[in-house]
Amino acid sequence: MPAQGCIKSESLEVLKVLWDALKDNYPMMEYAGALDDSWFEEYRRKIERASDLNEALLIMDRLVKRLNDYHTRLEWPDKPAFLTPPVTLGLVDNQVVVLRSEESIPIQPGDILLKVDDEDAKTRFDREMEEAFGATRYARVRSACRRMIEGPKGSKVKFRLLNPSKGEFELFLERRGWNRREPVLSSSSIDDEVGYIRVSLWGNFDVGEFDVILEKFRSKPYLVIDVRDNEGGSDDLAAEVVGRFIDRKVLCSISFYRRAGTNVYEKWIGFAEPRGEWRYEGQGGCPDKRRMCERM
Questions:
Q1: Pick from 111, 170, 173, 197: most CB atoms within 10 A?
Q2: What SS3 state is found at 17?
Q3: How many CB atoms sit inside 10 A of residue 258's CB?
Q4: Neighbouring C-beta atoms of residue 121, cutoff 10 Å
Q5: Residue (of 100, 262, 120, 287) closest to 193 by Cα position
Q6: Cα separation of 138 and 77, whole Å?
């Protein structure tokens, strides 16, 4: 068999092993949208066009990510690590916009991204959105914004942007990643009436540390607890935090664990229980501010 034929055969064999493993072990293929073998056939056709096994594995990686499950991933030796420039993008009013950037580069929050490597930015975003990863639309938008500018470490990407004050401009940025790790637990007072607590990771802090911060805001009528874009972590820690805001036992989660190779599932139920006294009723203050906090 010619070399290309051997590569294609090997890639398709790996795909078949992966697909069978998912069907035998993953607990909710149907919930993710895989109602039959149509996903397998779709990705088989894509892999048949792959030039080598590494390219085929990247296609299989997209198949696994289609489950939109943060706890399921495909790994293999020498899996390439794709990085972005030190820029965070978002979708605002149907335009791709800079949300944050490293101070060392001449890009500002609010700059509109017009083109990426001479391709229309919104067109590229829409293409990436078709296979973006995430459990919610918000998460998939974030994924598409990242994927549209990522590439091999050290490579360059060309941006064309629009800044309200200086007009359109171009620059090349190196894909070197951006370590923007924030404290796992932080807080501030927005004003005299509103307290703010940020949890970026449900781990690496003790629930007692949360209690100390919470106590500082006991006299404030409003409290914002910001868990957006958190990195996950311990369900037990999250339940302990929730326990400060409830006066009765509350259902947190129901999980079903599948016995490999069978359709037998074991059910696990997680609860949060009241923990310490805390009354937070949000009374008084400005009505507009109260509505703002309720929406958040």
A1: 111
A2: helix
A3: 15
A4: 23
A5: 287
A6: 31
CATH code for the domain defined by 82-174:
2.30.42.10
Residue 244, classed as helix, strand or coil, is helix
Quote the percentage of the chain above a pLDDT of 70. 91
pLDDT under 70 in the chain at which residues? 1-5, 7, 180, 277-296
3-state DSSP assignment of residue 10: helix
Q: Which amino acid is at 206?
A: D
Q: What is the mean pLDDT of the chain?
A: 88
> Is 74 in contact with 64 (CB distance < 8 Å)?
yes
Half-sphere exposure of 256 (CA within 13 A, CB side): 10
Cα–Cα distance measured from residue 278 to residue 193, given in angstroms and rounded to the nearest whole number? 17
The stretches of 73-198 forming alpha helices (DSSP H) are 121-129, 137-147
What's the rounded Cα separation, in Å, for the pair 210 and 283?
A: 23
H or E stretch at 295 = helix 287-295
281 phi/psi in degrees, rounded to 5: -115, -10
**108 CB contacts (<8 Å, ≥6 apart)?**
98, 101, 163
Q: Which CATH architecture has domain 185-295?
A: Alpha-Beta Complex (3.90)
The 3-state secondary structure of 38-60, one letter per residue: HHHHHHHHHHHCCCCHHHHHHHH
Q: Which residues of 202-241 are buried (b: 16+ CB within 10 A; e: fewer)?
A: beebebeebeebbeebeebbbbbbeeeeeeebeeebbbbb
Beta pairing class for 87-92 and 156-163: unpaired
Contact 266, 195 (CB under 8 A): no
pLDDT at position 185 is 95
User: Between the CA atoms of 106, 111, 116 and 122, what dihedral angle is there, to the nearest 10 degrees?
Assistant: 170
